[in-house]
Write a structure and sequence with these properties.
By secondary structure, the chain is mostly helical. It folds into two domains: about 100 residues; about 110 residues. Helix content is about 75%, strand content about 0%. The protein contains seven helices and two strands. A two-stranded antiparallel sheet has the order 1-2. Helix 2 packs antiparallel against helix 3, helix 4 packs antiparallel against helix 5 and helix 6 packs antiparallel against helix 7. The longest helix has about 30 residues. The radius of gyration is 20 Å and the shape is globular. It starts with a helix and ends in an 11-residue tail after the last helix.
Length: about 220
């Protein structure tokens, strides 16, 4: 059986089983990887944190791939729409907590606080706007996509740097740390920018002088 035939069988199976298709399985895989990342991060071996960084990289790539699969093979579903952002936020939050605990410095703690606070705020905004049937008003903007790329790159380099003490250094830090910090602070700037865009879009409703009850479904 050729690879194309195998792929066709998977697609047919996935379309039959709408609840847990390939795209949703990939998204679920990302969530399952979180405890694995934590395990290898604390594993007392020289290659533990490198493995954690590689797991994070695989999860980051899968984030793009499961979305592509869902669109390409018409596997988009309510479950996938719910799980996808949850998987992203859980992995990013867990990784940032690990990095803050490891480095114990305000230069990582402050950006981590900004990023996690933004995710909570935007999630709350989306949920609140959905009650008014206006969820589409805060669709993902291009700035947010670039922010995600910078964020994932920063976390990957900082995770990898934890096991690269012997690399060429500048200002007392490895090159991996420098790249990680650069990407992290670019991500923070884009995080604040994207949140401003979302707040600007939703402000007319937020600024209503009198509370309006959401329409009944």
């Amino acid at each position: 059986m050729t690879s194309d035939e195998w792929m066709l069988k998977w697609v047919i199976f996935a379309k039959i089983n709408k609840f847990m298709n390939i795209a949703n399985l990939l998204t679920s895989f990302r969530i399952i990887c979180i405890p694995l990342l934590v395990f290898f991060f604390y594993l007392p071996v020289s290659w533990g944190q490198t493995t954690a960084a590689l797991i994070f990289a695989v999860v980051g790539w899968t984030d793009w791939f499961d979305g592509w699969v869902a669109r390409k093979f018409d596997m988009q579903s309510p479950l996938g729409e719910f799980l996808d952002p949850v998987a992203d936020k859980l992995m990013v939050a867990a990784s940032l907590v690990l990095l803050v605990e490891q480095h114990a410095t305000i230069w990582i703690a402050a950006p981590a606080l900004v990023i996690i606070s933004r995710e909570i705020t935007v999630s709350a905004l989306r949920e609140w706007m959905a009650e008014y049937g206006e969820r589409s008003a805060i669709k993902v903007v291009f700035v947010a996509k670039v922010k995600t790329l910078m964020q994932l790159s920063a976390i990957f380099f900082l995770l990898l740097a934890g096991s690269e003490d012997g690399t060429t250094s500048i200002w007392g830090h490895s090159w991996l740390y420098i790249f990680g910090y650069i990407f992290l602070y670019v991500a923070v700037g884009l995080t604040l920018w994207s949140m401003y865009i979302y707040l600007k879009v939703t402000w007319p409703l937020l600024a209503e002088a009198k509370y309006k009850k959401p329409p009944k479904s």
